[in-house]
Design brief:
Bound molecules: zinc ion
Shape: globular
Oligomer: single chain
Number of helices: 4
Largest sheet: none
Number of domains: 1
Number of strands: 0
Helix content: 55-70%
């Protein structure tokens, strides 16, 4: 499917840490509905959420996860 190179950057994508081009690439790929990557990005969302819990002891925002996952289900 030619998307292995995207595997490791979903966390960055979700954090908004990718370059503009990288972001576009991921977006376009997800827009094609690749089931593998949709599953992977769900996991990445979990990871990012957990990271946000540990790295920001002040006030983790439980809505972030919901928001991230919600956005993925829009078509
Ligand atoms: Zn894919």
């Amino acid at each position: 499917m030619g998307c292995q190179h995207l595997e490791d950057i979903y966390e960055l994508f979700l954090l908004g840490a990718l370059s503009e081009q990288g972001t576009l690439e991921v977006r376009e790929h997800l827009a094609r509905g690749c089931p593998h990557c949709l599953e992977r990005i769900r996991e990445a969302a979990e990871t990012v959420y957990l990271l946000s819990l540990t790295s920001k002891p002040a006030r983790p925002n439980p809505q972030v996860k919901t928001k991230l996952l919600h956005g993925l289900h829009k078509k």
